[in-house]
Amino acid sequence: MLTTTAAFGGYSVRDTDEALAFYRDVLGVDAREAPMGVELHVTGGAPIFLYGKNDHEPASFTVLNFEVPDIDAAAEELAAAGVELLRYEGLHQDERGIARGREAGYGPDIAWFADPSGNVLSILRS
For the segment 72-89, what is each residue's pLDDT rounded down to a tens digit? Predict the structure, then answer.
């Protein structure tokens, strides 16, 4: 059995200064400079670590989900901050870009957007 003292998640970004500004100033996340990158403190648990990578390639999947109490209000807040929601063919997103899974009985209401490095993030209401 692996003996651990803690665990945390992380993913790469192309520029840590750009990431810090986006997560802190645009999204309003508690984002802090760290010795080797950026720490996101979003749940009161372990931080999420963002590290710079010169040859960064964004993942083809969602790397971070933000659970929100009101997805419509969250989508409006993102739009007001200049963040555009992503559109995916076949996911039956509404005119705002929100996939209404709760109404259809197949999952959460969810919408996706990208950080400046192209990493896919989401807002969701389960």
Answer: 999 999 999 999 999 998
- Report the distance separating Cα 42 and Cα 25, nearest Å: 14
- pLDDT band of residue 103 (cuts 50, 70, 90) is confident
Which DSSP state fits 72?
Answer: H
**pTM of the predicted protein model:** 0.91
> Could you give the CA distance from residue 84 to residue 3 in angstroms, rounded to a whole number?
42
Any idea what DSSP says for residue 106?
Answer: S
Domain count, the chain: 1
Instruction: Compute the half-sphere exposure of residue 100: CA atoms within 13 Å on the CB side of its CA.
Output: 6
Domain containing 15: what range?
Answer: 10-125
Q: How many residues does the chain have?
A: 126
The CATH code of the domain that includes 70 is 3.10.180.10
Q: What is the pLDDT of residue 101?
A: 86
- How many angstroms separate the CA atoms of 50 and 52, rounded? 7
- List C-alpha distances in Å: 22 to 31, 70, 117: 9, 22, 10
